Task: structure prediction
Amino acid sequence: MAGFGTSDSLRFMSTCPSCKDVRAQLGYGFRTLIRLLVNNQPIAAHCAVCKKSWPITANERAELALLLLTDGDP
Result:
């Protein structure tokens, strides 16, 4: 679900609610994602094809949190 290329940027996947395709999401750092998850704030995703944005689902949040706890190494 996520890729850890650098400590500054993390890539994760989210399903677009409009076209139903899984889209790579970029632009969030490790610490930012942790802060958003801990504070229960929305994590926005975007579809380059549909040009729509949405908050990731609760299920995607849980998967991302688990991944950050197990694979994330800032």
Observations:
- The first strand starts at residue 2 and ends at 3.
